[in-house]
Design a protein that fits this description.
The chain is an alpha+beta fold. The protein is 26% helix and 30% strand. It has 2 domains: 15-210, 2-Layer Sandwich (BirA Bifunctional Protein, domain 2); 215-261, SH3 type barrels. It has helices spanning 15-21, 36-45, 95-111, 160-163, 169-173, 179-194, 202-211, and strands spanning 26-30, 53-57, 63-64, 70-71, 77-85, 117-119, 123-126, 129-139, 142-150, 219-223, 229-237, 243-247, 250-254, 258-261. Helix 3 (95-111) crosses helix 7. The relative contact order is 0.17.
Length: 262
């Protein structure tokens, strides 16, 4: 699979058509912004942002990942935050599972390729290289779902410390993909899962997620937020969306953590 993309041909948004295509999400577009999640949280707390909505940045200057991680993005990337009304039946740790599946479905459609995989709790991989990352936060009655997706990113422009760890939708598809098409395709999948009353059950989501889980049957090390480290064989997700890890001490069930493949 080629690691390098050709120079990007369509990395711009056409706002009039984008606004129509993203319905029912209300569009907030920014040419430059520090972080779409950070700004969405600020607007939400001030009562100026109503769900469902989407914040789209042509250029994000200080994107955040989980914990203290920084999300680097360049031209040809999608950097957005979806603002979704909270569903009382969905627990916070289940949101990135559902959202991740929506992103995966969208990427499969864009690439005509079903080889990409989900890495619990918040990444999308292809051949163990990172395609996308999610940052999900619950703020003032809404779920904020931040998404960074490498679409037509020129890998020569990626910092050398990251270059060997990432790939792009264009590289997987073997052709350039319009960032607008990529965004509207993924938005439609997320709307079907998170805004539709007919999306099915979380059990159905888990079944599909486990079929595309990059960690299943692999040896992993997970560092939990409190500092505990769990090491063993991943057995997928349980019925509540917790990661199952078989260790010498028995089966562990985890709701959060940083994962390292061994």
């Amino acid at each position: 699979m080629p690691r390098r993309t050709m120079p990007a041909t369509d990395n711009s948004y056409h706002l009039a058509t984008l606004r129509r295509a993203l319905k029912p999400f209300r569009l907030y577009f920014y040419t430059r912004i520090r972080s779409t999640n950070e700004h969405a949280a600020k607007l939400r707390r001030s009562g100026k942002l109503y769900a469902p909505a989407i914040l789209v940045a042509a250029r994000q200057l200080a994107g955040r990942g989980r914990g203290s991680n920084v999300w680097w993005s360049g031209p040809g990337s999608i950097t957005v935050t979806f603002v979704i009304p909270i569903d009382a039946g969905i627990l916070p740790h289940q949101v990135p599972i559902i959202a991740g599946l929506g992103v995966l479905r969208g990427v499969h459609k864009l690439c005509n390729n079903t080889d990409s995989r989900l890495k619990w709790p918040n990444d999308l991989l292809h051949d163990d290289l990172k395609l996308a990352g999610l940052l999900c936060e619950r703020v003032e009655g809404a779920d904020l779902i931040g998404l960074g997706l490498n679409v037509n990113l020129d890998l020569d422009e990626v910092p050398s410390s990251l270059r060997h760890r990432v790939t792009t939708v264009a590289a997987v598809a073997g052709r350039q993909i319009s960032v607008q098409k990529a965004l509207t395709t993924i938005a439609a999948e997320l709307a079907g899962l998170l805004l539709s009353k007919d999306f099915g059950s979380f059990a159905q989501v888990l079944k599909e997620y486990n079929r595309s889980h990059a960690l299943k049957d692999r040896r992993v090390r997970i560092s939990e937020p409190g500092g505990k480290v769990v090491q063993g064989i991943c057995e997928g997700l349980d019925q509540e969306g917790r990661l199952l890890v078989r260790t010498p001490a028995g089966l562990q069930r985890l709701v959060a953590g940083n994962v390292e493949l061994l």
